[in-house]
Amino acid sequence: DGGITQSPKYLFRKEGQNVTLSCEQNLNHDAMYWYRQDPGQGLRLIYYSQIVNDFQKGDIAEGYSVSREKKESFPLTVTSAQKNPTAFYLCASSIYASDYGYTFGSGTRLTVV
Amino acid sequence: GENVEQHPSTLSVQEGDSAVIKCTYSDSASNYFPWYKQELGKGPQLIIDIRSNVGEKKDQRIAVTLNKTAKHFSLHITETQPEDSAVYFCAVSQFYFGTGTSLTVIP
Q: How confident is the model at residue A1 (pLDDT cuts 50, 70, 90)?
């Protein structure tokens, strides 16, 4: 079955550490996205990528980095510069980058300990 | 960027009643308006979407209406069932999401 897979489901990070969240899709979608979800704030866009080797900052990119070396993969690194990283992170993909609905992964819950 | 407001933030209805969630947006050039349903601990799932060249779209018990002049669109769920209980998000032009509506359907 085609879909989008995020791993791990739960992740614990010590302060000062970088951590990488995995996102893989087998839908042959061109565009991929990372969102952060906090209670009462909806979903906020961190980064998105329309094609391989290209990505754009979203509204809250500070303290995060991404890469898009393969069409299927769009990993997100939460760096030590992110001041409040505890959140639910959602990866999504869409067939094209403009005005098409998303397929979301099941999310990664990151907790700083 | 786009400013999306969603109301209400919580909604409780009796099973069988209708539920309506409304979103407003700021950019009159926006053309795409999807709705997502998120169950606890899961990622959101696209349930219906509408483009600016139509005013209404229906899929079984759910429908979306769009008023481009007033810059608002609404999700309508009829004959609600307990399995409709979830958080619903509107979005505008793919990138921008509302803050969500927690719908509870009381059996």
A: low
